[in-house]
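So, can you check what follows?
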Amino acid sequence: MNKRFVPDSAPVAKPARGTAAPTAAVVTASYAPDFERCRLLCETMDEFVSGASHHYILVEGRDVALFRQLETPSRTIVDERDLLPSWLHAWWDPSSLFRRRIWLSLKTQPLRGWHVQQLRRMAIGAHVGEDTLVYCDSDVAFLRPFDCGAFWHGGSARLFRRDDALLQPVDGDHRIWSRNAGLALGIAEPEISPHDYIATLIAWRRDTLVGMCQQIEQVHGRHWVETIGRARKFSECMFYGRYADETLGSAGHFHDYHEFCRVYWNGPALSDDEFRDFVAGMEPEQVAIGMQSFIGTDLARIRRLISRN
């Protein structure tokens, strides 16, 4: 019988100052259709990533057995039931002809997998001991060496931020996500932050993450998952960024807009030549690529092309 993940019951401590470098763990939320992509992530992490003592992969309960294949002494598969409230349940969705999952409760709106993956990423902070949580999606592959110590400088953690990006028209729901984050955190002004905090391969301070969830509970008098789940349009990056900047006044953080991962967000599947051009276009600071799984680029081709890179 596989041993379940045991949450850390120790009180949350702040990173040591001046005596030791802050510790780090990589966090990945995934699901069964992305299993082989997650396997590739693990393989490239093992080859290229240093400065992290552990890798936590967060999955739905029914996917735990599958992902156990990836477990090592430094890689743990975490069942979402050990992280999220017991009143939030996953079911097969009849409206999708039982092809997709839906999370239901009497306390939230119906939630999809991408919603719950965000909730897992926020919940993990209260259950582990590392100072730094490095978030990396399962459709990412590392191509260059990377030390997670890059997320700290002089006792402050790196907060990814595109300054004033939301002052201009943007595609998607970024402004709605920013507004809903402000409402959850009790930030009256501005209604929408001018800044965008969303990227792949970013890091959060664990103590700040735990404080953020506590802030939401203090403002609304109920579990933070219940508050967030009442709005179906939200971004975990917006919650953290607005809390760090507007509630904490950026204390313990420094800002940086450089992206460590080059992501192909949308468009047709890339040909071999287009893939090579995409990789060749990586900036000097970029160490990984992300190929969104819904685009349809064949994973075997990605493996083959990466091995030739």
In short: The longest strand covers residues 24-29. The radius of gyration is 19 Å. The CA atoms of residues 162 and 196 lie 5 Å apart. Confidence is low (pLDDT under 50) at residues 9-18.
